[in-house]
Amino acid sequence: MSDKLFRLDAGFQQYDWGKIGSNSAVAQFAAHSDPSVSIKESEPYAELWMGTHHKVPSFNKNTKESLADIITANPSTYLNDNIIKKFQSKTTLPFLFKVLSIEKVLSIQAHPDKPLAKILHANDPKNYPDDNHKPEMAIAVTDFEGFCGFKPLEEIAEELKTITEFRDIVGDEVAEEFIKNIKTGTNIAVGSEEDKANRVLLQKVFSKVMNASDEEIALKADLLVKRAHEAPKTFNKSDLAALVIFLNKQFPEDVGLFCGCLMLNHCKLKAGEAIFLQAKDPHAYISGDIMECMAASDNVVRAGFTPKFKDVKNLCSMLTYQYGSVESQIMPPVPFKKSSGEGKCIEYNPPIDEFSVVETTFKGAKKGAVRLHEGLEGPSIVISTKGNGYLKYGDVQLKCEPGFVFFIAPETPVEFIAEDEDFTSYRAYVESDI
């Protein structure tokens, strides 16, 4: 047994939107990794959590000690002094790594930045359990659908012109102000006066939708769904009418039909594609299986498609109101430079400090193929998602099967050894750049 490389037991969450029973990758991984887990075929399995977050902590599989306690006992060894200095913690990882299996739409939501998170946590710790921000990245493992950020403004303007139900909720005055005054085009710089004015107009429209009465939303939602059935071509995207119908079956007469379907980008990813979502950007996941990594926080400010607490006042005031195409939020992978050998390593490296994610695959490689990951400055967590292989450090060699999770300490070079060409793993890690 090694104190530098060891197996973890990871906990899972059974939210209503998760895939059911053995159809869920989360359930499959949890049960395969821990034989004591018995899959209940009528229940949803939504999220597998890997990390030190207090809500669902991970444990050393052999010693049953929590990863947080292991780190706390020797933070320099398990975090690295530069990581401690950068993130001001001697007890926890700066990231939280997850697998999500999505059957039904998650709530439309956004996450506060650091200053707002501290305020919300201090004032309402029940609904905001953390004082940290939560930028996040989603990597599609299967075909994936979601909402990501506000649409280009000209698309929203067109919908206000043609979708009567949307315009009725927003009101003629705000709708006309938006349509007549938004500035569009590729030459509008982020942060320019035109861009700032656009965001103010977008906030007015969104706030009107979010503050509409439940009775008005229900009435207009029924009419919107009727439109989707009878006049689908009046929607400016060919798949939008079908999306309205589909989501209304999950959440009838919900405000999400307006603040989501009509205001946010409908994003479709193929396996291997990824999106990055800054704090304060609205989003929701609709279907698929993803690897998700985020700053270590569980703060959520909800907007729609949920029976849970919705903090409309904070939501409307906190969003960045950044707008643009789906393509602007795609996170293309790059080669992972700190690896060598057979197989392939690609890295998803978002523009934040808390995490990056590396995918290692061996398609076309022979049994026994080896890919070396150099020792990284900070800690990391690995999950094997497909095929079979091993992780090796020194004399320690640990079996990898789907759902097996591992912790790798800083400055620990590890060999990824394939037993078959399907062997696939994802590694979340942090470095300080100090």
UniProtKB/TrEMBL annotation:
EC number(s) from the headed UniProt entry: 5.3.1.8
PROSITE patterns on file: PMI_I_1, PMI_I_2
Entry GO MF terms: mannose-6-phosphate isomerase activity; zinc ion binding
Stored InterPro entries: Man6P_Isoase-1, Mannose-6-P_Isomerase, Pmannose_isomerase-type1_CS, PMI_typeI_C, PMI_typeI_cat, PMI_typeI_hel, RmlC-like_jellyroll, RmlC_Cupin_sf
Tree of life domain: Eukaryota
Pfam family for this entry, one: PMI_typeI_hel
UniProt record similarity statement: Belongs to the mannose-6-phosphate isomerase type 1 family.
Protein name per Swiss-Prot or TrEMBL: Mannose-6-phosphate isomerase
